[in-house]
Design a protein that fits this description.
The complex is a heterodimer of chains A (about 700) and B (about 190).
Chain A: H1 2-34, H2 39-58, H3 62-79, H4 87-105, H5 115-129, H6 132-139, H7 145-164, E1 167-174, H8 185-193, E2 197-203, E3 221-227, H9 232-239, E4 246-253, H10 261-265, H11 267-286, H12 301-323, H13 330-358, E5 359-361, H14 363-366, H15 369-380, E6 384-389, E7 394-396, H16 397-418, H17 422-427, E8 434-443, E9 446-453, H18 460-469, H19 481-486, H20 509-518, E10 522-528, E11 532-540, E12 545-553, E13 556-561, E14 565-569, E15 576-579, E16 583-588, E17 591-597, H21 598-602, E18 615-621, E19 624-630, E20 632-640, E21 654-659, E22 665-669, H22 671-682, E23 689-690
Helix pairs in contact in A: 1-2, 1-4, 2-3, 2-11, 3-4, 3-5, 4-5, 6-7, 12-13, 15-16, 16-20
Chain B: H1 2-13, E1 22-29, E2 32-37, E3 41-46, E4 60-66, E5 69-75, H2 76-79, E6 92-100, E7 103-111, E8 113-120, E9 140-146, E10 149-154, H3 173-185
The chains are: A alpha+beta (about 700), B alpha+beta (about 190).
Chain lengths: ~700, ~190
């Protein structure tokens, strides 16, 4: 029973590690496409594939290990420079990565669908059977093609000879740290012995100084002679786990069949190539050269949430304590104040450090884009260069997880609608390759993510015409450029003349806006026709704590998120107009804004219903501004958001609750929800008209 | 009393069987004794002012801070359409756990006073009689007799409908009437 549990845990570990490995492979493969076949990258990809294969076999996931074996074989040929890095090969490998990812993902459910794997396996085998040289000539795009093609034919012949050889002469010089990585040469030799008779000779023993010898370090090297007709791959596999930490040279012992010229000439060159490849690999492993090295820890999200709750309590206690300072005896007050200062500082520090646990670099969300842009660009026949900046900007894990989909949509949208085809770009006097920029940075308590393209921009005339056609904008309404651009976020809006596979179904931008609004964020677009578009997403760093403004209506206090408040004003009754005796509007500079009377919406008693007696909190949500009528403003404070849903249910117009300094519960207003509530009450769209100047 | 205790000891010795059997916490509400399964009860606390939630049925008094958790409070008198009385010294909030669609929620029930704890076997619990539509029977699990008194056992999970609780008190009565009138025409 316990063994089963352990296996399940280990299998989970395998899944996690495989997924990491697959990410490594994917980003590595994408990098290969952009530059010359860098041996470091190539080795990293190969190692990842090899680990997946090994892990799969260990845990009995034979489908995965068998498939990974084919991938590995292809990668190995590429790694050794026997096969040029062609676009076809990279595409096939990327598909294979997807396939392994699917298979790994479905391990959890138990059933692994091997249909796709079989299909790809056939393709991989076909590619492996092809003469690499011919492939290179046909594709012609490999950077190392010329060089590789020259050597491949000979290498091939050499390889063939290897397989027919009578055995191997192996020079094995492990690094001093080999024991620490839990590798045991003795075990490896036993494994070799299983292949055939093995002669072992240790070297370097005579130079050893036993006085200063560290028993945990390996100071020996070995020369081995293996009398077996095993192929190179089988022998190398024995050393695969230590490939980073050793010098390994394999030299075939010519057999009876190896009587042709090139084979006997070639081996030395072949042998040299291995340590050369192994050294950079070791360097890559030591340094941080390879991307995606996040150095992050895995923290159980439940624990982190509990910790955040604790911090919330601490914040509450602190504000409770601070309430009593006024009533205290003068002799105590100084000490108490000092203590409070301390407490408040500690609270904040603790809060910050706890939050930091949840913070992850946005590269987690960005990492999928090189692949996505490449694939989408290919599908659309557009040339795109993707620039990522600010990948290390950190944000809350929950926000990070939820921002992925909206970002994907924005990027696809920019690729599909924004960027032009190469011909159009050339005709417009722009470089053939379009630039798509993803940029993230911190600004105040927010994180800002920008999606910028240098494409055609938004055609305002077209957008406005479409909006009028759909009845989203009145025919005679005048809108600012900015407002026109932001019309694309309205539901049921798409200007794409033809619905493509990617976007243009009219569901999307409104969903993007809603998803971002759900995270407490805001999205806007700036665009200039012919120059490009810039989508700006503003998100709170965390979902757990909110900067709030307390407002009072009658006996009740509510919290409005400071982010949504534009300003607070007092309005005279004569500035307020009534439409059909129902909806009230007031004029704020050049706009007429509807007044939401909170006491009416919530059915509670306010101090006064007279507009002069209260205040109007001008709040904005989804590009819509309203004035929320309240009795008074109270203090601003950071509040810990508690869910109403956890014990009750979601309420319209209320996004959650919090606990105030006196221990009572205050509700947090949800401005978009309030507007919706107001619309439903009044049976229509709120009046929101720009005054005709 | 002594007889009851003896009776209860006997009951304790008997093997637990049946779904409805077990210990029940009882409380008073408008002169009647109601019982809830004791395993559903998390704690009993004194009454404190709740923060009202707008646009909820009147029996939802609001939410309270229960050691950092925001917990809704239900007035059981209002829930059962009984006359309201001012809250007094014995008024308590029984905090219970409700299971609803695999989600466990904590809810406070305001009752007149806490009464007793009884152990009841499933054999002692009878199904509620069919009283027609006039009486709320959906949250009555059964009836039991303890010391000649009737105890109404409540099905805690049914006390709040977490989904369909749409009630908008501020909607004009005319609109409601119009809807009611519209239905027969269809």
């Amino acid at each position: 029973m316990s063994v089963d549990v352990n296996m399940a845990e280990i299998a989970q570990l395998f899944v996690e590690e495989s997924l990491e490995g697959l990410d490594t492979m994917e980003s590595g493969l994408l990098n290969l496409d952009l530059g010359a076949a860098d041996p470091e990258t190539m080795n990293a990809i190969f190692r990842a594939a090899h680990s997946i294969k090994g892990g799969g076999a260990t845990f009995g996931f034979t489908e995965i290990s068998e498939f990974a074996h084919h991938v590995e074989t292809l990668l190995d040929e590429m790694r050794r420079g026997e096969r040029p890095v062609t676009r076809d090969a990279v595409d096939l490998l990327l598909q294979s990565v997807d396939c392994i990812r699917d298979m790994t993902g479905s391990l959890a459910t138990g059933s692994v669908d091997t249909a796709r794997a079989k299909e790809l396996e056939v393709q991989l085998e076909t590619m492996l059977r092809q003469k690499p040289g011919v492939g290179a000539a046909a594709c012609g795009s490999g950077h190392a093609a010329g060089e590789a093609a020259a050597t491949t034919d000979e290498a091939r012949v050499a390889d063939e000879a290897d397989e027919a050889g009578a055995g191997w002469r192996i020079r094995f010089r492990p690094g001093p740290g080999i024991f620490k990585s839990r590798n045991d040469p003795l075990r490896m030799f036993r494994e070799l012995e299983a292949l055939g008779a093995l002669d072992v000779k240790a070297v370097g023993a005579e130079d050893l100084d036993f006085e200063s010898l560290d028993p945990e370090e390996c100071r020996l090297g070995w020369d081995l002679v293996l009398h077996a007709s095993a192929d190179r791959e089988t022998v190398e596999e024995v050393f695969a786990w230590v490939a980073d930490e050793c010098e390994l040279e394999l030299e075939p012992i010519p057999g009876i069949a190896a009587d042709d010229g090139p084979a006997s000439e070639k081996p030395p060159a072949q042998a040299e190539s291995l340590p050369a490849a192994a050294k950079p690999a070791a360097a890559a492993a030591k340094g941080t050269a390879f991307s995606q090295e996040t150095g992050s820890i895995r923290v159980n999200i439940d624990k982190v949430d509990a910790l955040i709750n604790l911090v919330g309590e601490l914040v509450i206690t602190q504000s409770m304590l601070s309430r009593y300072t006024g009533d205290f005896d003068f002799t105590q007050i100084e000490g108490l104040r000092e203590g409070l200062t301390q407490l408040s500082r500690n609270t904040r520090e603790l809060q910050e450090s706890v939050m930091a646990i949840r913070m992850l670099p946005i590269s987690f969300a960005f990492s999928r884009f090189p692949r996505l842009v490449r694939d989408t660009g290919n599908a659309l026949g557009k040339k795109v260069e993707l620039k990522l900046t600010g990948e290390n900007t950190e944000l809350d894990k929950t926000v990070l997880e939820k921002i992925g989909d909206p970002l994907v949509h924005l990027v696809r949208n920019s690729l599909d609608h924004g960027l032009e085809t190469p011909e159009e770009r050339v005709a417009a006097g722009k470089p053939e390759t379009g630039v798509l920029e993803l940029n993230a940075y911190h600004e105040g308590g927010n994180i800002v993510i920008e999606v910028i393209d240098d494409g055609a921009g938004i055609d305002k005339g077209k957008v406005l015409a479409k909006a009028r056609e759909r009845g989203l904008v009145a025919a005679d309404e005048q809108l600012s450029d900015d407002r026109v651009n932001n019309l694309i976020f309205m539901a049921g809006f798409s200007t794409a003349e033809e619905i493509s596979d990617l976007s243009g179904r009219g569901v999307g931008m409104d969903v993007v806006r809603r998803n971002i609004a759900d995270l407490g964020g805001h999205v806007s677009v700036q665009s200039e026709c012919g120059v490009g578009s810039k989508f700006t997403i503003r998100l709170p760093l965390t979902l757990a704590i909110l900067d709030g403004q307390l407002v009072r209506v009658g006996k009740e206090s509510y919290i409005v998120s400071l982010v949504s408040i534009v300003e607070t004003i007092q309005v005279c009754a004569d500035k307020v107009n009534q439409i059909a005796g129902e909806s009230e509007l007031f004029k704020l500079r050049d706009e007429y804004l509807p007044i939401l009377r909170l006491h009416e919406l919530f059915g509670i008693q306010a101090d006064s219903a007279r507009i002069d007696d209260g205040l109007l909190v001008v709040a904005e949500a989804n590009g819509q501004r309203v004035g929320i009528f309240v009795d008074d403003l109270k203090e601003q404070q950071q509040v810990v958001i508690k869910s109403l849903e956890a014990n009750y249910r979601q309420m319209r117009g209320i996004s959650g609750a919090t606990i105030l300094g006196d221990g009572t519960v205050a509700l947090i207003l949800d401005v978009p929800g309030l507007i919706q509530l107001y619309c439903d009450r009044n049976g229509g769209v709120p009046h929101h008209t720009a005054a005709v100047a | 009393m002594a007889a009851t205790r003896k009776h209860m000891e006997e009951l304790t010795q008997q093997a637990e069987s049946g779904d409805a059997g077990g210990q029940y916490l009882t409380f008073m509400l408008a002169g009647e004794e109601y019982g809830v399964e004791i395993l559903k009860v998390q704690e009993i606390k004194g009454w404190g002012t709740a923060t009202p939630i707008p646009n909820t049925p009147d029996y939802v008094l609001g939410v309270l801070n229960l050691r950092g958790a925001v917990v809704p409070i239900i007035d059981l008198r209002k829930r059962f359409s009984l006359d309201s009385v001012p809250y007094g010294a014995t008024t308590v909030v029984i905090v219970v756990k409700m299971s609803h669609e695999d989600q466990e929620r904590t809810v406070g029930l305001v009752v007149d006073a806490v009464a007793d704890v009884y152990r009841l076997e499933s054999g002692e619990i009878q199904a509620p009689p069919d009283m027609g539509g006039a009486v709320h029977t959906e949250f009555v699990r059964g009836l039991a007799t303890v010391e000649e008194k009737m105890v109404i056992l409540l099905e805690v999970d049914c006390l709040i409908d977490f989904k369909n609780m749409h009630s908008s008190p501020s909607r004009s009565p005319d609109a409601d009437k119009a809807q009611v009138e519209a239905i027969p025409e269809e």
